[in-house]
Amino acid sequence: MNYRRHINSVVLVGIANIFVYARNIFLLPILTRSLGANVYGLWSQIYALIELLTPLFLLRLPSAFTRFIAAEQDVEAIRSGFWTSFLGAFCASMLLSLGLFLMFLPLRDSFGVELRQIADMLWVVILLIVLSSASNSCINYFRTFEKSALFSGMILLESVGFLLITLVISMMGGNIMSPIIGLVSIKILICLLGLPKIFQEIGFSKIDWKTLKIYLSYSLPLVPMGILYWTIQMSDRYLIDLFLSKKEVGRYAATYTLGGLISFVYAPIFAFLMPAATKLWEANQHDELRRFFLRSLKYPTLIAIPIALTSPVWGLTTIKLVAGIDYVTTGNLIFVVLIGYLALMIGTFFATILHLKKKNTTLLFINILTASTNIGLNLLFIPKYGIEGAGISTAITFIIQTIVFYFFAKCYFSFDLGVKDLGKIIIASLLSAFFMSLWGIHNLESLVFGTILVVSLYTALLWISQAITRDEITFAWQFFKERLVILLK
Fold first, then answer.
1. Terminal Cα distance for the chain, rounded
2. DSSP 145
3. In degrees to the nearest 10, what's the CA dihedral of 420, 270, 222, 24?
4. What does the alpha-carbon distance between residue 67 and residue 85 come to, in Å, rounded to a whole number?
5. What is the mean pLDDT of the chain?
6. What are phi and psi of 404, to 5 degrees?
7. How far is the C-alpha of 423 from the C-alpha of 191, rounded, in Å?
């Protein structure tokens, strides 16, 4: 495997993801301050519904395309595979969206006031699902074949474009339509730019029904997992609304934005994890795949663990600065949210092994187990502990899910987790968290200087404990110099 090329792709996507996370940070004050806590809570519920229904209505066909075509070299097979998944997902999203609309239309008046607000915005959900079927397929094509420049460009366009359009609409008179218009506009733009490029590379083909049957045999067992994943990831917002209020939903959603920092760290790795792992798996390069998994797990974890363990110290001030005092929660909630995200990210490596083995039934079983656990814990904890209870429930669920993924994946394929280095990283992170708590984070100035000092301390501790080796540092420095020379030219 060409690690230098792969790292180059990861770095490029990482740069693009800086703008993705920056978008989330800048978008938070735009929406929270222009919409207010109640309307922001409604928007977070609408967005959660879109997140649920999009992969569900696409029948997970883009995932099947990546699994079967990532290692393919034949242009005809690629052309047939892409357009079969694209057109199949697009038609399915339109038919299922129409069915949803016709089903809910006569039931609207039977809903309570809270659900009626969401039902009134159902047309928005349907529009975005159909557009997402096309835009997501375009982005997935560039990801599958590790076209890092185009993939990163699409991510950058989606992030910056959405932010700018939302900002402009908000300044013209902010309401819930601001982010909606932003999303619709940017998804249309991605299709207008992506589809001609794909057509230029592979041409056009109608649906190959034989290929579609193969894809559906792989993807349909994954469809219920979309519901189950949403149940774990997003249903707590509806239960918070049921037991508490939309204002509490807004506060909880704002805290979850910080959890996105963990996703941001792993996102460049996950962008090409499945395509790269598929190529090594299909070529029976299992030893190389083990090294690939070890390195892919270690390097983002070097950053993610200290972020999670220090989050109770810097998190409250960050929310106050970004969203405002109304959205400040507790250090405990921030901590469990980030720990939950960390467990979810680590579990993804083990789930990837089950995808490679096409153990979709096993994946479905695990997701049923964890979704049921999550609902039970939420029903138990939210009435008693409020939004902290929701965060605790989700963290416990993701930890259980990761453990189960690990034991099942180990039956088919195992790799070195680098436990010794992980132990050193955790100890260095705990010492850094202790130092940061002594420093104290109360305003922007203390946040900036405290972060600089803690990063310096943490890096020194990693060097002293040899959690990072001289060879790794030398490789990183040489790689950085090469990229700098290219940029300067």
1. 28
2. T
3. 110
4. 12
5. 80
6. -65, -45
7. 45
pLDDT at 14: 63
State yes or no: pLDDT of 288 exceeds 70: yes
Say whether 441 sits in a helix, a strand or coil: coil
* Residue whose C-alpha is closest to residue 30's, from 257, 309, 305: 257
Instruction: Please give the C-alpha separations between residue 250 and each of 94, 144, 159, in angstroms, as whole numbers.
Output: 30, 35, 21
- Cα dihedral 29, 122, 109, 227 sign: negative
Close Cβ partners of 128 (under 8 Å, ≥ 6 residues apart): 50, 54, 180, 183, 184, 187
b (16+ CB within 10 A) / e for 350-388: bbbbbbbbebbebbbebbeebbebbbebbeebbeeebbb
Minimum mean pLDDT range among 23-37, 72-86, 356-370 = 23-37
Of 275, 328, 341, nearest to 141 (Cα)?
275
Integer Cα distance of 151 and 139 in angstroms: 6
Q: Give CA–CA dist 244/332, Å, rounded.
A: 19
CB atoms within 10 A of CB 322: 18
Tokens of 340: 């939950």
What one-character DSSP code corresponds to residue 109? G
| C-alpha distances in Å from residue 285, one per residue of 38, 227, 289, 352, 358 | 53, 34, 6, 16, 17
Amino acid at 353: I
Give the tens place of pLDDT for each residue, 440-467.
888 888 888 888 998 899 989 988 888 8
CA–CA distance, 99 with 30 (Å, rounded to integer): 34
Backbone dihedral angles phi then psi of residue 358, each to the nearest 5 degrees? 60, 40
Q: How many CA atoms lie within 13 A of 470 on its CB side?
A: 0
The torsion defined by the Cα of 234, 257, 343 and 242, in degrees rounded to 10, comes to -30
Task: Please name the residue that has the structure tokens 């001030």.
Answer: 317
- Closest by CA position to 14, among listed 268, 203, 299: 268
Q: Are 451 and 314 within 8 A, CB to CB?
A: yes
List Cβ neighbours of 449 (8 Å cut-off, separation of 6 or more).
Answer: none
Residue 411: count of CB within 10 angstroms of its CB: 12
